[in-house]
Amino acid sequence: MFQLVKDTKLLIFGDHNLQNLNAARLVCRELGITNKSFYQKIATFKGASNRLELVKSGLQSAIYKDFAHSPSKLKATIDAMKKQFKNRRLVACMELHTYSSLNKSFLKQYKGCMNNANIAIVYFNPKAIAHKKLEPITKEEVHTAFKRKDLLVFTGSRELEDYLKSLNWDNQNLLMMSSGNFDGLDIDKLIK
User: Fold this and answer.
1) Hey, which bits of the chain come out as E strands?
2) N or C: which end of the chain has fewer CB within 10 A?
3) Could you report the per-residue pLDDT of 130-164, keeping only the tens digit for each?
């Protein structure tokens, strides 16, 4: 596993990011770049776009976005956020957007993947399902698939936005996960 120099501060976190960082270090070493030089440069690396990307932060809260949409990626991203911010609650919101995620028979793969979030939210747009010519899914089917009794399911971006804006963001982070854009939801304006 990746070993950091004791005083190296990173702007990225999460096991997947650290594994990728280690791969980059090994490539750089093969190219003749010293570990010392590598460690100096990675201190300013913000990570890949849409991969645990910081959108906005304050003293007691932050908004991150991630491209995660498969069950294993949702779980890994949520776990990374919980590990990084041990003393903060986590509101994790994911959008069912891809052909597979909107497929009724695939939905069951999401079982338990959002269990580590304090508040788990799933968003999908029925119009996107119709546009992709897939069989319609219901909120109840999403609840059944995720196997989380307190799961919140939204089918309108305005309704989702209103709910998120109503929350108290003291000591609580927001994680927005999708390969889409929650139907144009302006993520950076969700937390004041």
Assistant:
1) 53-57, 62-66, 89-95, 119-123, 152-154, 172-177
2) N
3) 988 999 999 999 999 999 999 999 999 999 999 99
